[in-house]
Design a protein that fits this description.
The protein is of the alpha/beta class and about 400 residues long. The protein contains twelve helices and 21 strands. Helix 6 packs antiparallel against helix 7, helix 8 crosses helix 12 and helix 9 packs across helix 10. The structure holds MU-OXO-diiron.
Amino acid sequence: MGPLEIRAGIFWVGVNDRTTDLFEGLWPLPYGVSYNAYLVVGEKVALIDSVKSCYAEELLGNIAQVLDPARIDYLVVNHMEPDHSGALPLLGRVAADAEILAAPSALPMLTRFYGLTEQVRAVRDGETLDLGGKTLSFHHIPFVHWPETMATYERTERVLFSGDAFGGFRTLDGALFADEVDFGLYEGEALRYFSNIVGMQSQAVLRAIDKLQTLPLEVIAPAHGLIWRKDPRRIVELYRRWAQNEGEPGVALIFGSMYGETRRMAEAVAQGVREAGLPVSALDASRVHVSFLIQEAWRYQGLILGGPTYDTGIFPPVEQLLRLLERKRLRNRVVGLFGSYGWHGGAKKKLEEKVRELGWELVESLEFAGAPTPEDLRRGRALGRAVAERVAQGVRHA
Ligand code: FEO
């Protein structure tokens, strides 16, 4: 996709990445991801963010369709993670006179990642830069997602270049703006991006939202995914809700099963949730990548986990999910648990201990031996209903 003028004198010059399999070497990208870079053209020229290094030439080609890249006066680094800073070495050679502007804590990173020490300047929180016809201001928003992160605001067009904040996975398919696409196709990938990448820093996201909402906003232009020009508050409110760990009324039911017996229990539990009138997303933890499990655990208020006892403990894929949810600091979940065993239990007790450690509300748990009996399955349905009813109550009282 070539460059596009998103507001007078402001151009998207980013790229779509459809070939990286794993973002950060961890998270699958079945729908790709975009790296959004923006050219702000006044009498002077600033480039806001860049792209992953392997796309540096494509970025340069996009810039060249707007103006000679050697004319760039400022390279603004909102965020040092290499998906946004990887083209800096090439840009520095092409725009040899350009000054690199970044938050103070980015400066040692510029040296460590790229050996860049010359023509680098730290910008203060709230500092402004007159480009002649365009004015930028810089707003430090630490830990969204690294400590050096900042957002840049263009005052005449009221555009916020928000870095990782308000972004999402999925490429921009011929259209840049959220109002040009079916957002239903993008919302899940925005939540997966939030929960996988910045969810751990939810408190920092909330602080950033409070800080940035004092700016008069007409456009939010994040570093990944769709640009918001109509109703930019929509993505801000979604991010706020996700950062507050406010799940939707529904249940993520995530289970493992070795020979199908625990899966049969999971089916009964799902039925119970539906009987109580809530949506349920039932996912086999052995087969669905943990990235999507985290997304669904973040989406819904209710979380039901189940699995057979393995090596006297929690089934490994379910245990891995719990470890990551703990690391990402997911809070405020209403939980049900079910465990099974062949000769000796253990999974249920260890799941209960973990849920207590995490401070989640445990509604009910059960354990069964071997294949579930009709009575076991009846208890499973009741467990699904009980968790769903508790979720519905909590939502009504919120
Ligand atoms: Fe999109 Fe934290 O980098």
